[in-house]
Sequence to fold (1384 residues):
Amino acid sequence: MREFPLVDPGPGEVLVRITMSTICRSDIHSYEGKRPNPCPGILGHEIIGIIEQIGDRVGADMRGSVLEPGDRVTWTEYFFDGECWHRDVLDMPQKCPGIRKYGHDLATEPPHFLGGFAEYCYIQPGTGILKLPDELSDEEATPLNCGVATMVSVTEAAGIDMGDTVVVQGLGLLGLYGCAMAKARGARLVIGLDAVPPRLETARRFGADEVLNVEQVETTTLIEQVRSFCPPDGADVVVEVCGVPGVIPAGLEMLRTGGCYVLGGLVNPDADVTLDANVLLRKWITLKGIHNYHPRHLIQALDFVMGNRHRFPFKDIVDSRFALNELDEAFRRASERSVLRAAIVP
Amino acid sequence: MREFPLVDPGPGEVLVRITMSTICRSDIHSYEGKRPNPCPGILGHEIIGIIEQIGDRVGADMRGSVLEPGDRVTWTEYFFDGECWHRDVLDMPQKCPGIRKYGHDLATEPPHFLGGFAEYCYIQPGTGILKLPDELSDEEATPLNCGVATMVSVTEAAGIDMGDTVVVQGLGLLGLYGCAMAKARGARLVIGLDAVPPRLETARRFGADEVLNVEQVETTTLIEQVRSFCPPDGADVVVEVCGVPGVIPAGLEMLRTGGCYVLGGLVNPDADVTLDANVLLRKWITLKGIHNYHPRHLIQALDFVMGNRHRFPFKDIVDSRFALNELDEAFRRASERSVLRAAIVP
Amino acid sequence: MREFPLVDPGPGEVLVRITMSTICRSDIHSYEGKRPNPCPGILGHEIIGIIEQIGDRVGADMRGSVLEPGDRVTWTEYFFDGECWHRDVLDMPQKCPGIRKYGHDLATEPPHFLGGFAEYCYIQPGTGILKLPDELSDEEATPLNCGVATMVSVTEAAGIDMGDTVVVQGLGLLGLYGCAMAKARGARLVIGLDAVPPRLETARRFGADEVLNVEQVETTTLIEQVRSFCPPDGADVVVEVCGVPGVIPAGLEMLRTGGCYVLGGLVNPDADVTLDANVLLRKWITLKGIHNYHPRHLIQALDFVMGNRHRFPFKDIVDSRFALNELDEAFRRASERSVLRAAIVP
Amino acid sequence: MREFPLVDPGPGEVLVRITMSTICRSDIHSYEGKRPNPCPGILGHEIIGIIEQIGDRVGADMRGSVLEPGDRVTWTEYFFDGECWHRDVLDMPQKCPGIRKYGHDLATEPPHFLGGFAEYCYIQPGTGILKLPDELSDEEATPLNCGVATMVSVTEAAGIDMGDTVVVQGLGLLGLYGCAMAKARGARLVIGLDAVPPRLETARRFGADEVLNVEQVETTTLIEQVRSFCPPDGADVVVEVCGVPGVIPAGLEMLRTGGCYVLGGLVNPDADVTLDANVLLRKWITLKGIHNYHPRHLIQALDFVMGNRHRFPFKDIVDSRFALNELDEAFRRASERSVLRAAIVP
Fold:
């Protein structure tokens, strides 16, 4: 544990006192040295906190609400300040070359505080900030700017329409939000797939109407079972959030003619998969890759959780709290999956 | 050559005297015994003709023009009569289970005449019929109901917008129409790729602004060259119409973030390809398979050729004529590719 | 009350024994002689019933489920058999010229039974039929093929996205389903407007988060109130289902830049309204008219009610039952609005 | 004529030596005192020029090309620097509250040069800049950032598809570009309407297939004539670019069921029009207002002109040149419409 000096926030910056941050799977990879993060650094990008001080030229949050010290806020996990073709022409600010992410910098350089596992964070210019309503608990709010916003992006790309049948491959945090969001967008039937029995049970509480254990049946049987739930021709949408490329061919077989398959979990390189392109062609399938999210998706993520928190138990997802000096213990528990989402409370 | 009796067309049928039909690549496969067609049959689904007699309950063509004997017409290469979820709910009549295609039936059973390489054809109930304007030559009109309509379907799926950069992989008949159609939809730059030098030259006359020989450079160089034509981040659209699954990974590399890849040529089973799904995800790529076309695409195909026939030399595509008794010779020439498109003129 | 002979259903026909039909506002207009219906006729197009006998060539319902005597079914309120540019090219079967509607024919001509206020009905060829699940009560099922399906059509056109703010002008039957459907499509906030206090109260139970009485405040104040609920720039969507053209200008003022206004209730001619077209232009507004629905919307209507019947009290909408010989009484009660929806139970 | 000092461009600014600017209709209104512009000011927002000096933090144009002194450029007619819900959430930067436009400021305040009718202009931070290809003449390039980009925006909103029939109401500068752009997007038939005979003739050279003089026939006849060109049910798209609200009802009557009407010319307040909202509803019409354009539309405007300059005589639109000291004469000629577009060449 190290200490760095706090200074007044510069133009466009906001100084936040962190109230909670959670450990994302990618933090675990960095912690275990599997990702090339600068060291020493402050990991953590799923962060919320209370505004301590506001720099010049910062006026309002993304929705136009005036920001003031004392406001509790979330913010986009990335920031980019400047002009960029991806943002200004394509409306894909999340893909600007040179974009930076919280929790990925050297802590020894100013402003030092750019990650979640610390007492403070300087929100940088080019970040989308969003005020949080009081009734939302820290546990419900912290995952907003990573998993929830990403799933808004993924389910939007899937084009889920009223009455659709939706298959979710993988029932981790992304998958749980995905099941609930599919229902909240009007899906008729959500089918959750995973290999871990407790996850299947949890998914039922998050909107999955049917759950199937992918390890208990042959893949051809699994495909048949899913298709039998979706007459006459298969599922309208399949969403991959398990991170395993090998599930794609079976997912494509589950789709109806004209159906849509969205890749949301394959965030690591070398996710090779062999497909029969003729299947895509004959079935008029649309296959989309989605990575990260647009700033508006963070607003929608908040609206989704606020509008459905009495319908689905979002409060149970962050199921453990650790102090800053228990960080190693928190990482250990998160890594061994004995907790669903570990929160650090400074 | 065999003869069968002509009878009055039944309800919903139209008897047409064929004026031209052309040999499609799939006809060659059937002719060579590589596809399981019933025998004896009348091959050929790219057909136009003049209405000889009209059955009961046939009133107008797809555009609402009254049909009369003496009208020259084209029609959808497939027919489906009845109710069907794919048509009535999904608006995908081209995918109704049990749909039938001209040129695929046993000639010994009534109505005998359901293919192109004959003097007559009975247009069946559930076929979309379209009157042809007089100024259009038979050579320009015959490919409408197969290659041209398919490419309307493919380029619509690609979502080509004003100013887009479009790569066409494969410059056969589909590719040539694809280049011209991309320009006619407002593309800024069309890049044609093929391994056959004369095709590259022909493509220039059909709207390709740049052509590259895929066999003369390494794939990585090819990708770089294409990307250098499409600053700052690669092509907006890549269209596959070469029938070779191995070209897909390079095509994906050519795309910009958020770009669209359409599969249009991989009509044969077992088109296996290995992809890095992480590339699709990180680049927000949309990959679509398109097969066959909606009846409205046939109308658009006609409008496209009528509106652009002085801009692109569509009349040169059907470049040879054979009589019915020269059918074997026509198939030989088409098979060895010494003609671009062989026409049979009864 | 008159009797007509029952015969076997012809090809494509299905004979149904009616279990419930409800009185729509348009039936009241016809009953009161304000609409030119042929006489004597059997009014009523909101009908469900049990299949008694199935004619030739009828196989499955719209979803592909095999139909059998004893199945309880709903069906599209209109039918059209034949080919038509509006259906085959535009995918708008509901707008085919010559389309016919149940409850609009002379009862003295065969097949006599084409309306709801009778013991039997012959479902005609070109009707979309849909099987009903057992758990759905007749009261929940009968409005599906008119009001519910129309509101699927209207809310789809509105493009309601996760987190949207939606204003519903008019809280009759269409408005109540509209409020619930906006929530079921992910709306963050639904604001209901009406002049009748009990309707405002009912709307709260159907998903309206805020309700405003349009007669208790000046229009400028009303606009300000609505806009204050939708920071920073107004509502994303406004839906008109009150049938009063004069509400449109205020509705447009409630919208944000780039918002969408859908007309759903102005089904009568001469709905003149004066607009400032410059407001539409400067605010980039999209204004859409929607009338009737596509067959797929009936499927979605069923899925919507099935998926949300424990969330919203759809069962309370049909709040009264009358026998066939109490039809006059039922019309009287419906006309004076002392019941919300009157059901006829033969 | 007054002189102001030139200084080095500040951060994010670019100093341009103007090579041409043109007089827009709105400049004439300001010149005639009908619009409240600050005085003394430098009017003119349709400007191109050559980069003289580049301030800090300016790297590349909108397409990512590095900017250097000597580059000839066009730029968005508006600028907005900072964060804004309209830009960051809605992707509508052109509608940010507080947005500023070139040609609308007091010239006595630094940086003095913010309008077209001068020797220099300081491009401000938050402007989209675009390099111009050498082969494009100044006359072809100057209208890009106003009329051409606006019509990209308008015709995009119209959703013109291959084979569509498009009616253009008003054949001034916007209408001429509109006709050409409809063809370049694949329209089958473009019908131009105006009351000024020479405009009708000019429109033919810009892609109008049919032109009708709206003053020579009754409106009902005009509607019938247009509809007869667009069987079976009327035009797919009608675009208003004449600035007269009274033309809207006739335009709506010209549309097919499901057609789209775009308002593009009604830029002045109090454009009252009385519509029958029931017509919109029964015909499923979409009516959209479009004002100004997104930065990407300026890129598309350039691509459109570059791709079609040998097809349509864009070079003839700017048909007169005046020196800066002939500005009054230029305004007189533009005002009396004895020139199509007057250019000021410093």
